[in-house]
Amino acid sequence: MKRVVRNADGTSEITFDVTFTQYRKRPVLVFAAQMDEEFEVETLEGTMRGQPGDYLISGVKGEHYPCRKDIFEATYDLRVPHMQVER
């Protein structure tokens, strides 16, 4: 089995030969909220945790998942101001 391993410094290392091709991520609109406290989300991959400042994303298929603040802000741009969801 081919493996990509995580190094102690947080980077990853590919342990096999591979040729990458460049792709552009399709523009997809999602809804997201920046959270002010720790939170958990039950996903198909298991329970995922978010920290204060992270974002809770509502995906294109109605799924929800956390996203670290630095990754979110490097990936998404604000398109439309607030939509309130009340429970």
What does this structure look like?
The protein is mainly β. It has a domain at 21-75. It is 8% helix and 32% strand. The protein is built from 1 helix and 7 strands. The chain has one helix at residues 69-75, and strands spanning 4-6, 12-14, 31-34, 39-43, 46-50, 55-58, 64-67. The strands form 3 sheets. It has a 3-stranded antiparallel sheet. A hairpin with a 5-residue loop joins β1 (4-6) and β2. The chain is globular, with a radius of gyration of 16 Å. 5% of the residues are buried.
Strand numbers in spatial order across the main sheet? 3-6-7
Helix and strand sequence = EEEEEEEH
**Mean pLDDT level:** 88
Find the structural class using helix and strand composition.
Answer: mainly beta
* Approximate helicity band: under 10%
DSSP summary, beta strand count: 7
Strand content: 25-35%
